[in-house]
Every structure is written in structure tokens, then in C-alpha cells.
Fold this protein.
Amino acid sequence: MATQFITGNQATILKWYKKQAKQKRFLDDLPSLEGFGNATQTQFVSPRIVEEIEKKCGITPVLVKVIPVLYRNLCHNNTELMLTILNKNSEKYKGVFGYNITACDCGKLYTFEFHSLLKHIETGEYVDLTTDFGGETEKWFLPVSEDWTFKQGKIIRHFQMDFFYNSKKPHTCGCGRKGCWRPVEDFRDGDLNGFIKSARNLLRATIVEA
């Protein structure tokens, strides 16, 4: 129902969307897709990983289909803009903060990437319109917070917990992808439940007026 409305009115929505100055300004700054083959991917997230995440943090991950109609790497801005047009006459959608879940194909390393998408209020269906930077068509998503009230012009700034890795050490598993995986220095690891609690608290603290 939620996706049918959007795809059925896609031409009108995209015409409005592409007129927004913010979107045009960011296009030239998008990172390259080069090297995506060395990154973790949704397709490697196993049922064991999903079960482990749910057990550790008490939140059930959901598998969300990606409808790639909006610019990649701009999920927060995309969500804010879509709520403006989709809720123009009445509040049908809300914005949700959370994390995309990806994994290495060996199954030992999984990662979180900060993300936002839409949720249809009536059905509870999650809707992701942001083109995935690696071209994936579905993503495991961990919904963490619905506190960000887009319709009141509030945005998040200076969030410090964009990534989570379940391993602090550089990961090499012989998967065949060059270099495999070397986490950046500012990632967090270990206590997943503590990470999610901290993320929720920071989300509340960093919501500011635009």
C-alpha cells in the first residue's frame, strides 16, 4: 500500500524532489562507488547474525526492499524531503533512524551504518527510497529511534555514532576480496546493547531546530 502510492505517483514526486537546491548542491560531492566489492554487504547477513543482534540489543532487524529512486548517500535529507511532500495533506509517514546491517561473507564480521528511512504509519511498513551506494536491492535495517520529528523542521547534527563493528581488530578471512576489511579508527565495538542505548541517548540530545 505504502510503496504502491509512491511508485504510482513517482513522476510527480521526483519532479518536485529534483528541484530542491540542496539535492543539486550535493551531487558533485558524492563519494565514488570504487572499492565497494571490498566492503561488507547485506547479502552476507545470515539468520545467525540477525538472531544474535536481536538477542543482544532487544530490537528485531527488518529486511527492507530498496526502491532506488532518490540520490544515494543522502538518506537523511531524502527522508526529510519525502516527509514534506508525502505528509502534505495528512501525516501518513514518519522518519525512522537506525542502522543498515551488513556482513563479510565469512559470517564473522558484521557492521552497522547509520541510516534513516520512512515508515508508513497505518501499516507499519518500512520504505527506503535512497539508492544504495553499492546497488543492493534490499537491506537489513535495525530501527532504533522515531524521535526525529521531521515535519517540525528538526534535523540531527553532530551525531557521533555512525558506525558499529563487532570486531575491533582488522579483519582478514580469505574471502578473496582484496584487503578484506580494515576498520577505521573511530569505530565502536564490543557491547552492542550499550552501543544502541548510547545511540538513542545521543539522538535525543542532538535533535536541534533547523
